[in-house]
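Below is how a single chain appears once it has passed through the pipeline. First comes the sequence as given, then the structure the pipeline wrote out for it. We keep one example in the README because the format questions we get most often are answered faster by looking than by reading.
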Amino acid sequence: MITILGIESSCDDTSAAVIRDGVILSNVIAGQAVHERYGGVVPELASRAHQQNIIPVVHDALKQAGISKEEISAVAFTRGPGLLGSLLVGTSFAKGFSSALNIPMIEINHLQAHVLAHFIKEDAQDTNQPGFPFLCLLVSGGNSQIILVKSYDEMEIMGQTIDDAAGEAFDKCAKVMGLGYPGGPVVDRLAKLGDADRFTFSKPRIAGYDYSFSGLKTSFLYFLRDELKKDAGFIEKNKEDLCASLQKTIIDILMDKLYLAAKDLRIKEVAVAGGVSANSGLRAAFEEYSRRYGWKIHIPKFAYTTDNAAMVAITGYYKYLDGEFCSPDVIPYARVSI
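Resulting structure:
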């Protein structure tokens, strides 16, 4: 049996998970409410919170999995990309854990892990994993990419944002409306109550499969500025319709390029991953495109959408099978491609 302990600490969620032979045994996540008052993640506060959370989270993951630390075959950890201070906490813990138990370390690319979250098995009979090759829309606060997944360890970015990510557009526009942080889930909740066709916002004209969301943010900001001059209560009176129209615009932008890539590459198996994959509107769009174009779609469980260690552990499992271990002097990196 191969038992992998996964450690995730790339941003503001501290997570540990245990996977045995590809089957999830536990996945524990500790969030950080300290950032809410600042309207975004504060790196120094994030790294301090990781230091407080890492040991209890790993303890709980082992306890929920019903195993002892001596049963762990290897420890997989997020090396990057992410906040350097946060990554250092997870990396340092992995080094100590590896050294104490004399087990190998496996470095994990955070973006690759989001894609491979689709291969987490709920039980030994679970066969609901994508077949190769497939397209994956990786969409989060920091990334918006269309990825051609040829195998567990061979992925090619077909298109990506040239400026802001879709998740950032959700959060920044929500902040302008005074909806708090993180704004994406609030926009999603309010959008369900609004008219998505009430307002129209600009969509970029970018060649190929690349994305751009900076123009949408600017369009949204200027629209609100102009309307607030006429009526100071405009946002409060129209926030459901604003959220619905904003969400529809972002989803249309995402799906238009994804459809184009799937059509050009003649691929019918399509997945979505990353924090924004929890958005109900995006999930509904995937269901609609599946009916309309015959796609076989893969939508992750909500527990595997945001940053989590289960995706790190499953990636570590496949790298373990290939003998891809790293040395104890490895250091994290803040930026890297898939």
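The chain has two domains: 3-126+304-321, 134-303.

See the next section for the split statistics.
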